[in-house]
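We store amino acids, tokens; thus:
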Amino acid sequence: MADLKYVGTSVTRKDAVEKVTGQAKFIEDLYIGPMLYAKMKKSSVAHGKIINIDTSKAEAHPGVKAILTGKDYKNRIGLYLIDRSIIAVDKVRFYGEPVAVVAADSEKAAAEAVELIEVEYEELPAVFDPREGMKPDAPLVHEDLENYDIVPIFYPKPGTNIANHFKLRKGDIDKGFEEADHVIEREYYVPQMQHVPIETHKAAAHWSPDGKLTVWSTAQSPNVVRQLLAKCFEMPMHKIRVISNFIGGGFGCKAGASIEGLVVPLAMKFPGYVVRIVFSREEDMQGTFTRQALFSKLKTGIRKDGRITALQYEMIWDGGAYTEYGVNIVRAAGYSSSGAYDIPNVKTDSYCVYTNNSIGGPVRGFGMCEMQWGIERQIEAIAEELGMDPLEVRLINGMKKGSTTAAGQVVHDVDFEKCLKTVTDKIGWGKKEGKFRGKGIAGLVKCPAQPSNAASSAIIRINEDGTAHVLVGGSEMGQGMLTAMSQIAAEGLHIPTDRIEIRVPDTDFTPYDWQSVGSRVTYTSGRAVKQAAEDALGQIYRVASDLLEVPAEELTFDGKHVYSTKDPEVKATIREVADSCKKCTGEGIAGPIIGRGSFVPTNMTNLDPETGQGNPGLFYCFGATAVEVEVDPETGVIKILQLAASIDAGKAVNPQLCTVQLHGGTIMGLSTALFEEVRFDKGVMLNNNFTDYKIASIDNTPHIDSFIIETPESGGPYGARGIGEQPMIGVAPAIANAVCDALGVEFNTFPLTPERVWEAIKKKQAKG
């Protein structure tokens, strides 16, 4: 691929000028017409029957146009397990759940009216710990679980709080433990966290007199939003238009449908008006997806030579009040439960459990950060038990070309060893630098958690002057999708990126794409764009063949001229080819040049419900993180001295964007490792703002040495694979491993706050 001209080049972002000049339009920047403003009344209990809702005072408040409650719209919504009401019906299941929504002619009036709504509850026993929620006598969060529609790859247990039980069985677990010289058992815990994107959730809706619904959304999944709204409101899809404007960060919290359903029924009551809702930071943190907490138990069998013979993994996930998306995280973690390692015998049980905490859902990494925290901490315990170098243990067991995942899928295009050695070489692995200093590493792997019918498509229109418009359905949320797709199109068309226009999705005009999730867009949308570009280029050659009276196979295109390889003087400009489409005699040749491309995975299969064996992965992306830390024993403060991260991108479409993705994901991982933890008290989020919920800032973000490894992905566009989520996965365990190396203490949870580290130091000192 040495002859690539546009892919592999750090061209300027397509949306750079719009964003740095403030011209990019977000939902709050739009004024489409007469506006109404929506606010929601939130539940004040975590679990309770709704006895009565009195809206009379609110209805009389000046400026109020309408108030809706759950009895007005009882249809449920959801992507995988359809268990969630738009507005609570009959009972509430988490603190902050919408019980009514108000539309008024100002935000102030709507907010004041919400305070006038009176709700009477009969409070019910609640469950806040998924381990307690699994017990036979636990209060049921969803009594009618057996009546919910569900995608049949998930396995809820009616009459319990178990929303999904994923089972995986690879090899013979008993034999694996018999072959082991040592058996190590540990328990680990990962708390809830929030995505905290710079832009909170927002949505607006407009209902026209002809029955056309237009929705503006901060959605990572405009086509899924259209699909779910069509089902929930029993509308034909051609009557629903979803526009996904520029999005100020997503990280998973804006996947699927979120708050769009709150404004749609209000818009239906007021044709011609645009009804808009904007969540406050507090509403965003309590009322949208959080990362599910994970309680896990690992039992590992190992030989004296460092080879892992068996892994038994139990995962209990806090799915929260609704698991319509969360059940898939539990599944993905289950089929990836051996991490980046080839372990011959694996037994995994992964449970998604309802609680009365906030809704559990997708977060960057999609369960891999949580699951691989246990794996990578367990590798350290193995190395200590055997007296081996932790790097050596990883190299012995790490996946290589031809290795099999926990689900039994064979992986290709793998250079995990290079990822590990690159970062460990950078931090001087094996050299002890001083007292209270330590070094740690962690491997990582991630594949897109998507169904096998998750398609992408693209349309490329060649304009009369030879420029091009590229239409795709993926969302731009800061990751650089628009730029990467324009580069792939440029490569296929031989047209410079500055002559290509590409815009944010609009379901009425842009073609279908499943979702911008799972680090899939570069691969799947890229495949579709590449195919569309090749289709358009083929049409250019066919038109030019007739125009120049030269066989198409003898033609080539340099971005400006189509010419004969045998006689370069026989040529036509791209403008002539695209504009005239006719011979000099005036005889017509062809219509407008429109390239079409689509992609759907063909290498994926369903998984056996009893063993979890099959091919769940479209592709696998590997990487590694290495850290050197220094710990202040008097305060517990951790200082990051060195931080190196590597990701095997297959082929970096835009090296600069890949590097900043690697930086951004690493910083987000560092933030969760050192600061972030959602704290609940009986379902009430105690730190639902930036005063109490801390994230990494510039003063505690270290220099990051980043390395883009390129082992071409055989199925990817020009060898590329997605890397958006992966950089976050290995950071927390690498830091914990480094701190353990520095202090000789163990941590089974994070964040590693100064208080938590200080307490561990004092506990060790007390033991002498």
